Amino acid sequence: MTPIEQQIEGIVDGILEDYRHGRDIDKLDTFRHPDKQILIDMIGKLFRIVYPGFSRDRSYRIYNAKHNLSMLIEDVMYNLNKQITLVLRDTMPEDQAQEKAQQISLEFFRSVPSVRAMIQTDVEAFFEGDPAAFSTDEIIFCYPGLFAVTVYRLAHVLYTLGVPMIPRIMTEHAHSVTGIDINPGATIGKYFFIDHGTGIVVGETTVIGDHVKVYQGVTLGALSTRGGQSLRGKKRHPTIEDNVTIYAGASILGGDTVIGRDSVIGSNVFITHSIPECTTVSVKSQELQFKPRNCSGNCRECPKPEPFWEDQARV
């Protein structure tokens, strides 16, 4: 064994010894936890179920819609059932976890038509709310906001069915892809429109009504999380009533905070108390300061430098 091989062997032994502390980060049984890549693949297949005419599997050569859908559902249900079983095994025996997972999987797929009905309203809201959109097809194919909302709506069903971890893995995947962070526990009504989207945060106990429009950089968050786990299950995030528009950079915080219906929240405001219905909230114009600075001399407002030969003539 070479010296470097001896060094590597010693490093391996040292890290293996470090695994024996029994901490949260020391778990070695990879087969007791859900497989993130399988769940991400499942999201892609669920999108083919939600939007059947917008994607295809090149390996399928069957052009009968019923057969295609049957194959997709069997595929997703098998993996979903298996992944739910894994996350339930910590709270119940294996056989009970398997039975419960099967019930949840069936209930999840029974909810697909109602989820698609909600998503249709979102597509309509995106199209009506964005004059840059040429068609609903463009929105479904291109818009990260709709991707994040669709993943949220699917994950929210699993959340309400009591599935741990998996809904969060799904929405955090959407978060990593789009920059839009919607907790699967949030409650969001019909015709939800996210414009641009990057940097949006929607907390777990947020309640959003119908026909709400949210722009980039908006935070619907908790006023304080210093209580840690003692705050679990409590209303920590705001309620946004129907027909509210929230412009870029606004922060609305607190479980007791209610934004009344038909209100408009302007850019960069910071709100920690309730706002009455039919109210516009904005920041008073900020004072702008203008100071001179060294310039290259190429801008229109600066005096033009004299030609080089004139400088030489003075010497």
Describe this structure in words.
The chain has two domains: 16-181, serine acetyltransferase, domain 1 (Orthogonal Bundle), CATH 1.10.3130; 186-290, UDP N-Acetylglucosamine Acyltransferase, domain 1 (3 Solenoid). The protein has helices spanning 3-18, 36-50, 65-88, 94-110, 112-129, 136-142, 144-160, 166-178, 308-314; strands at residues 181-182, 187-188, 193-195, 201-202, 207-208, 213-215, 219-221, 239-240, 245-246, 251-253, 258-259, 264-265, 270-271, 280-281. It has 315 residues and is of the alpha/beta class. It is globular.
The gist of it:
This protein folds into two domains: 16-181, Orthogonal Bundle (serine acetyltransferase, domain 1), CATH 1.10.3130; 186-290, UDP N-Acetylglucosamine Acyltransferase, domain 1 (3 Solenoid), CATH 2.160.10.10. The protein is 43% helix and 10% strand. It is built from nine helices and 14 strands.
